[in-house]
Amino acid sequence: MELTSKVAKTKESKNILDRVFKLTENNTTVKTEVLAGITTFMTMAYILVVNPLILGDAGMDRGAVFMATALSAALATFVMAFLANYPFALAPGMGLNAFFAYGVVLGMGYSWQFALTAVFIEGLIFILLTFFNVREKIINAIPTVLKNAVSAGIGLFIAFIGLVNINLIQQGGAIITLGHIQSPLIVLSLCGLLLTSVLFARKVKGAFLIGMILTSVAGMAIGLVPSPGKIIDIPPSISPIFMAFTDVPKSQIFSIDMLIVVFTLLFVDLFDTIGCLVGVASKADMLDSEGKLPKAKQALFADAIGTTAGAMFGTSTVTTFVESAAGIAEGGRTGLTAFTTGVLFLISTLFAPVFTSIPAEATAPVLILVGVMMASSMLKIDFNDLTEAIPAFLTIILMPLTYSIAEGLVFGIVSYASIKLLTGKGKVVEPSLYVLAILFIVKYAFAG
């Protein structure tokens, strides 16, 4: 009788999840979605370590930043899960945190409280832009060829991140060079890449997750990477940085420098998020017949709300993570994937020693393989039409070379609009895309 009751409760739980996240409609299962969410979390858990290190350089309490990172990531990802029902995860973005610490605080000489104020203002502006559909219109104005190019470019970008993270590629030669291939850590990563590749090619469910776990365990067993000192730790307090921007003088809030900082954050985050959303959604076949992203407005609210709340918690700009593609590659198609990732961010506050012990050598193979999968979007580009091939190629190649999704997308938009106009095909370009192209040209013309 008790067993029957448990089975009935399990079925009821699955039915609720099916209704909330439309699993059957999206041809997926609870098991697949949860596994995808775990995989996404494992590939982006590094932010729990890296973000406190970077913002710590700005003088912030690293333990408090760890908590702010986990909480803002969980909140924004939950908004994505329930409002948009998309498998995208969010967290404080790389690059934006570096600008926060090294650009605003150490470079311009302002306090970290000033920088948090800029992030808070940015979040409020994003909420307004999203409410009035400005960001959605920008997404819909981007032609399908550039959306496919962005997907492929992100593939190269995250694969490049994986290679750099394990020092297989490093600075040297003219620009970069091959790392020390005999390094035991690089050998560990390559073995992890081979193992995960074989599992993935054989279509083993959870290939990425299994590969990361086995690579981590192997590295710890032979002493190449440190094992966690303990399993559970008391979550640090967020109080040293919570709502810290309330003490910033009004003279600084209404200054030209604040305007410049907010504009920079807006620009980078806007096109990083748009690039990530359309690129990953394109690869997951989530775009409609017109190449538009359904429920784009709801998805964009997630990072707007996450950024605003994140500033209150005490962290830099929250954005959609390209590592979401890892979970999508595992079959994630709904908000249940994102919900799972968000729950793990909350759990991570208790099990920080374990989650932060996953080495780059274990996550890099996954990033590289996700790059392989996303790069296949190049097959959808008509390279016989040079008015489409050239902008697409510039988009793809500049993302890894500039280490920025936003810069690749900007060059793609400007070149697409310019080449189409000057070859007599200007009518196929959305008017709003011309406006964007002009704004980008002006921005770079007057860049410091």
Automatic annotation (TrEMBL):
Main location: membrane
UniProtKB keywords: Cell membrane, Membrane, Transmembrane, Transmembrane helix, Transport
Species the sequence originates in: Alkalithermobacter thermoalcaliphilus JW-YL-7 = DSM 7308
Entry's localization field: Cell membrane
UniProt keyword annotation of Zinc present: no
Domain of life: Bacteria
GO molecular function: purine nucleobase transmembrane transporter activity
The organism's taxonomic lineage, starting at the top: Bacteria, Bacillati, Bacillota, Clostridia, Peptostreptococcales
Family: Belongs to the nucleobase:cation symporter-2 (NCS2) (TC 2.A.40) family. Azg-like subfamily.
One cellular-component annotation, GO: plasma membrane
Transmembrane residue ranges: 34-54, 66-90, 110-134, 146-169, 181-200, 207-225, 258-280, 300-322, 334-355, 362-381, 393-416, 428-446
Name this polypeptide is given: MFS transporter, AGZA family, xanthine/uracil permease
Claim: Zinc is one of the keywords in the record: no
Record's bilayer topology term: Multi-pass membrane protein
Pfam families: Xan_ur_permease
